[in-house]
Design goal:
7 helices, five-stranded mixed sheet, globular
Length: 189
């Protein structure tokens, strides 16, 4: 069964013309204890039209929470030096960001399977915390060629672009019913 937040991302991508696979196993041998890595989302859009500046081929990491610098080893070490803070690290949550060889193996595995060489990483999350490091985290991810898309942006897009037509899809039907039965919906972006 697909995790709820992954399902929301999957719906968003499908509504924007992507073909989406969730919980995709890929060959990656960097970590011998896990020879078959799993990525949350693989999405392919044929044609040239981009959605929200997202790439046409996506390797997606979906987090149901806000991310912070403690998950990104290189950046975290820089910020610890700069701001002199101490906290536990969470580098294992983002192996593909923190280990360039692992990232390369994932991309190579997908290139072999799908015959596309332009996959890009996208981090889908609730946001970035704390706000005081937000610019540095965004700059770091941008420098690593990683896109970031917040869940609030996905929800806003789904609400703004969902028609009032009936659908047999549970989440899209819920959005339809909320739109029909409320006067105003606001999103924190």
């Amino acid at each position: 069964m697909v995790e709820a937040t992954e399902e929301l991302v999957k719906i968003y991508l499908e509504q924007n013309g992507y073909i989406v696979t969730t919980s995709k196993k890929v060959d990656a041998k960097t970590f011998p204890s896990a020879p078959r890595a799993e990525v949350d989302i693989v999405a392919i859009k044929t044609g040239r039209g981009q959605t929200n500046n997202l790439p046409l081929r996506i390797v997606g990491e979906v987090k149901s929470y806000s991310v912070d610098a403690r998950g990104f080893e290189e950046l975290d070490k820089q910020l610890r030096k700069k701001y002199n803070y101490i906290s536990r690290t969470e580098y294992a949550r983002f192996k593909w960001i923190n280990n360039k060889e692992y990232k390369k193996e994932i991309l190579e595995s997908l290139r072999k399977e799908y015959s596309y060489d332009d996959f890009k990483f996208v981090l889908f999350c609730s946001g970035i915390k704390p706000k005081k490091y937000e610019k540095e985290i965004k700059d770091y991810l941008n420098g690593e060629d990683i896109f970031i898309l917040k869940h609030s942006e996905i929800l806003k897009w789904l609400f703004d672009n969902r028609t009032n037509e009936y659908t047999d899809h549970q989440i899209l039907q819920l959005i339809r019913l909320i739109k029909l039965n409320t006067s105003k919906i606001e999103f924190k972006l």
